[in-house]
Write a structure and sequence with these properties.
- This protein has 239 residues and is mainly α.
- It contains twelve helices and no strands.
- The longest helix has 38 residues, at 75-112.
């Protein structure tokens, strides 16, 4: 398997070329959809007079700062806010999963220099929204359960399941459980190496932050490309 410095060098070559513009285009398009859905949902709740728990807590904090009181929600209001908040979280999870799935597929195309349908395939999650959402939910649930033991097992779980999104993009017929199980098998003995690869980008993120939004996005594209290249290396070892 290639050393991390060679993986970073390959990722650097990719993001300095034509692929950064494509990653930026797809990323902005997907993020715009996620933000637009969030804004539209908030506007719809506002028009219907529906309040979420976030709205209630924000209003409560504002009233307390101004020295005003606040009304304790009734049982009906409690369940209404709970239902609205749950629905809002579900919609956010669906579109967030679509975004992650689309970007994972695009990163693989960048690493392989596969120019075919790169933009259209970035929206592939819209073809199977419930499948990618279930992958996100199941992955987060497993990480959460491991985190209950302590912080370190939770971090290990994150890296154990890190390849699940790439596996889903390559094998769309696979269920979430199979993607996670295969990711765990592939990452045996490689979790520490991937952790160090991610850690090596801290300095770049500091520089990117100083360059504001565009710089941070470029650094993230650089890191994600390196992680996708890492997947290719691990997959080769597991053939």
């Amino acid at each position: 398997m290639k050393p991390n410095r060679e993986i970073r060098a390959e990722a650097w070559r990719i993001v300095r070329g034509k692929w950064f513009g494509r990653i930026l285009t797809a990323g902005v398009a997907l993020y715009t959809i996620v933000i637009a859905v969030s804004v539209a949902l908030s506007a719809a709740f506002s028009d219907m007079g529906v309040q979420t728990w976030f709205d209630f807590l924000k209003s409560k904090a504002r009233n307390m700062q101004e020295g005003l009181g606040y009304a304790v929600p009734s049982a009906a209001a409690f369940w209404q806010m709970t239902g609205a908040s749950a629905f809002e979280q579900f919609i956010g999870c669906v579109f967030g999963s679509i975004l992650v799935f689309g970007m994972a597929g695009l990163m693989l195309k960048a690493v392989r220099d596969d120019e075919g349908r790169w933009l259209a395939d970035s929206f592939g999650g819209f073809k199977r929204p419930l499948e990618v959402t279930w992958l996100m939910v199941l992955m987060n649930l497993k990480v959460f359960l491991w985190s209950l033991l302590f912080i370190v097992p939770g971090i290990v779980a994150v890296y154990r399941y890190r390849q699940a999104w790439y596996l889903k993009t390559e094998n769309p017929e696979w269920g979430a459980a199979k993607c996670l199980a295969e990711s765990g098998r592939m990452m045996k003995g490689h979790k520490g190496k991937l952790f160090l690869l991610n850690l090596s980008f801290i300095g770049w993120y500091i520089v990117g932050f100083l360059c504001l939004i565009v710089g941070t996005f470029w650094v993230d594209a650089y890191r994600q490309t390196a992680v996708a290249h890492f997947y290719e290396e691990v997959k080769t070892l597991n053939k």
